[in-house]
């Protein structure tokens, strides 16, 4: 498809007023925020939006956040991790409450997205790889896969500090139990669940090789997390024989 | 339209005149790209300018013999960060286009790894753009586009194609990679031309 046709086919983005419907603790350092967005055109699984906050003196701060939900409707779910010295994330995690309003711009991004195969058939296998809050768009993709009842094999490799830091634990478990083929594997960087002897530590090339769909199955791979995480993982994937064009990355900044 | 979000005060930092609207100052150097980092050896590196009538080509060694400029400039990423006063070395596009003849007004930049981005030619000439191969006195890191990247500091940084391998003249302003994926065709940070 030519670029021009794509430009015409995608919905237009814009600024919208969002009202906070609910905010709740997702992990000790993160909040799940549900927004009601006036005029939201719906979004694809994997897209993000920009949040704009305005202070009484007119100062504004804008940050990007992945969307954990997808589909039609004006409800949008985000999950934000607090960076202790951050400007925006501590406010969103600790201060924001139901009834507050903010502005959002989106949906944004048309590359780091997943669509169920149009003919209902089996697509190329999908490997999702997340570091920390980088799981958010991958949760949207996993849920879209589950809802479509799509037969494409999916796997998620999720690097997370401790079991308490897992985002959307229930949703991931539901997806893993559902009829759509979906498997989750965790890499715990600080503490594994009690009673298991899962190794603890940062992801290595060997863990990656053992935990992802092999290059011979030609999966599409989505990698999301901090810049350092994505750089490392994407570099190893290439070494393991995955094709450059089969790897999609979303980098959250930071190291 | 903009309104106050209850309880948000921001860092009440001084507003820096050099920051375009919606940008936040950073001191590190974030990395954003659509895929993995290509590794390109300078021994294999080539740079081409292709026009309707032919092709001009430089090897790394030939490129290094061109006139090299020091550039200090602010840079602005569409994901809201800006860095001020960054220092680069590279070859001006005025130098590269000095003996290139073309009737086309638009350029598609092509990168190792397949990335593309479109820029009108007059946004690249008159001291506005370089092919840069040093950052902060060091060879450009692969992560940041090394061995060489386009540097078009007055547009959002996705126009400054990393791992650049050549420029292709074209008669119309066809969208490149991010432009097909929702980003603005032009990308002026002062007008907040982020998305179409
Ligand atoms: C496309 C996209 C989607 C994103 N989605 C999410 C999401 O779903 N959930 C989420 O929690 N965050 C997400 N982020 C990151 C988010 O946009 C902010 O960068 C983050 O919330 C920090 O903002 P802040 O204002 O609190 O910190 P800032 O005040 O901007 O920064 C504080 C310090 O931390 C550094 N820093 C900035 N970002 C990070 C980071 N991610 N990790 C480590 N250090 C960092 C800065 O360089 C600075 O030194 C996403 C980013 C992008 C580009």
The number of strands of chain A is: 11
Determine the number of helices of chain A (DSSP H or I, runs of at least 4 residues).
Answer: 6
Q: Oligomeric status of the shown chains? A: heterodimer
Largest sheet composition of chain B: 6 strands, mixed
Structural class of chain B: mainly beta
Indicate the overall shape of chain B. Answer: globular
Instruction: Give the strand order of the largest sheet of chain A, numbering strands 1, 2, ... along the chain.
Output: 4-3-6-1-2-5
Q: Would you tell me the overall average pLDDT of chain A?
A: 90
Number of strands of chain B: 11
Uncertain parts of chain A:
1-10
Largest sheet of chain A: 6 strands, antiparallel
- Globally, the shape of chain A reads globular
| Rg calculated over all Cα atoms of chain A | 18 Å
Summed up, the helix count of chain B is 3
Bound molecules: flavin-adenine dinucleotide
- Beta-strand content of chain A: 25-35%
* Relative strand content of chain B: 25-35%
Helix content of chain A: 10-25%
Question: Can you summarize this structure?
Answer:
The complex is a heterodimer of chains A (255) and B (196). Chain A is of the alpha/beta class and 255 residues long.
Structure description:
The complex is a heterodimer of chains A (255) and B (196). A 6-stranded antiparallel sheet of chain A has the order 4-3-6-1-2-5. Chain A has a 5-stranded parallel sheet with strand order 9-8-7-10-11, with helices on both faces. Chain A is globular and about 55 Å long. By secondary structure, chain A is an alpha/beta fold. Chain A starts with a helix and ends with a strand. Helices cover 22% and strands 32% of the residues of chain A. The model of chain A is unreliable at 1-10 (pLDDT under 50). Chain B is mostly beta strands and 196 residues long. Helices cover 7% and strands 31% of the residues of chain B. Chain B is built from 3 helices and 11 strands; from the N terminus they run βββαββαββββββα. Chain B has helices spanning 60-64, 93-96, 177-180; strands at 24-25, 46-50, 55-59, 69-76, 81-92, 106-111, 116-120, 130-135, 138-139, 149-151, 164-170. In chain B, the strands form 2 sheets. In chain B, strands 1, 4, 5, 8, 9 and 10 form a 6-stranded mixed sheet that branches. Chain B has a 5-stranded mixed sheet with strand order 3-2-11-6-7. The radius of gyration of chain B is 17 Å and the shape is globular. The mean pLDDT of chain B is 92. At the A-B interface, helix 1, strand 3, strand 4, strand 6 and helix 6 of A face helix 3 of B. The structure holds flavin-adenine dinucleotide (FAD). Flavin-adenine dinucleotide sits between chains A (48, 63-66, 79-81, 83, 85-89, 133, 136, 226, 250, 252-254) and B (24, 26, 28, 79).
